[in-house]
Design brief:
mainly alpha, disordered N terminus
Length: 171
């Protein structure tokens, strides 16, 4: 091989498939698993915010709605984790540093009472919903992956609407 040229389909290191010994298929699976794990960690973050909100809400009715929503997010984590494992990767198993912000919003919202707590939770869920929408718009997911993401997106969207209605009621 002369300097400056290399066979097609090789990385400058000489590795086939573009470097690192990883094939295009493996790279796509890794990228998809990373994206799903980002969603899982955000689901864990939101779950911790739910716990904070449940301890601070004054209304039993509102706590019951949030308990139901929290259970839905636990189901999302379980389903998304299975999809990551189906891609041959390890699923995220806990929240990340972002959970501090999610919980802080709720604590600060508590200053405004139940309305503030619900508004903070709505902001947290809007971020999750936007992340799920972006994941849905990504290329490369199998139909099963898309179905799990869509289910989580639709439930999160419903949760946002429920929180809006409760926040209005709390004002």
């Amino acid at each position: 091989m002369t300097t400056g040229t290399r066979p097609a389909g090789t990385h400058p290191t000489g590795q086939p498939g573009g470097g690192g010994g990883m094939t295009t298929n493996e790279r796509v699976k890794t990228d998809l698993a990373d994206l799903l794990n980002r969603v899982i960690r955000l689901e864990f973050d939101v779950g911790q915010a739910y716990e904070t909100a449940l301890h601070r809400l004054g209304s039993e009715e509102m706590r019951n709605v949030l308990k139901d929503q929290e259970a839905d997010h636990g189901g999302h984590i379980e389903q998304l984790s299975k999809r990551v494992e189906a891609l041959g990767h390890k699923a995220a198993d806990r929240a990340d540093y972002y959970s501090i912000l999610e919980k802080a919003r709720v604590v600060l919202g508590d200053v405004a009472g139940d309305h503030g707590i619900l508004s903070a939770m709505k902001a947290n869920l809007n971020e999750l919903r936007d992340t799920l929408k972006a994941a849905l718009d990504s290329e490369g997911f199998l139909a099963d992956d898309k179905a799990v993401l869509e289910h989580a997106y639709l439930e999160s969207d419903r949760h946002v609407r429920e929180l809006e209605a409760l926040a209005t009621k709390a004002s």
